[in-house]
Amino acid sequence: MDITITVEQLADVIMAHGTIAVREELEALADAARATQPGAAAALTDWEGTEIARERAFAVIRAEQRHHMAASPDRALRVSLAA
């Protein structure tokens, strides 16, 4: 089964439960963002780092995704996980 979650859905879960609740999804998101945002991708998956650092990295990646969505609405970033 393939499960797809949007960055906006991830934001809702992070606000309610923290980044650890969506660790697998954030790992996949970091993989997708690594080519264009290597620093944010590294911080997003630094599980020895602070929660606020991961949240800020997520915000950077999310802002870039929104920028791309404004330019091309069909380019929504989705994180797919094989379940």
Summarize it:
By secondary structure, this protein is an alpha+beta fold. The chain has helices spanning 7-17, 23-33, 38-44, 51-71; strands at 2-6, 78-82.
Please write out the topology.
Layout: E1 2-6, H1 7-17, H2 23-33, H3 38-44, H4 51-71, E2 78-82
Antiparallel strand pairs: 1-2
Helix pairs in contact: 1-4, 2-3, 3-4
Helix content class: 55-70%
Give the overall form.
globular
CA-to-CA gap between the ends? Answer: 5 Å
Low-confidence runs of at least 5 consecutive residues: none
Radius of gyration: 12 Å
- Alpha plus pi helix count: 4
Count of distinct strands:
2
The strands making up the biggest β-sheet line up spatially as 1-2
The SSE string, one letter per element, is: EHHHHE
Total domain modules: 1
Strand content: 5-15%
Strand count, sense and barrel status of the largest sheet are:
2 strands, antiparallel
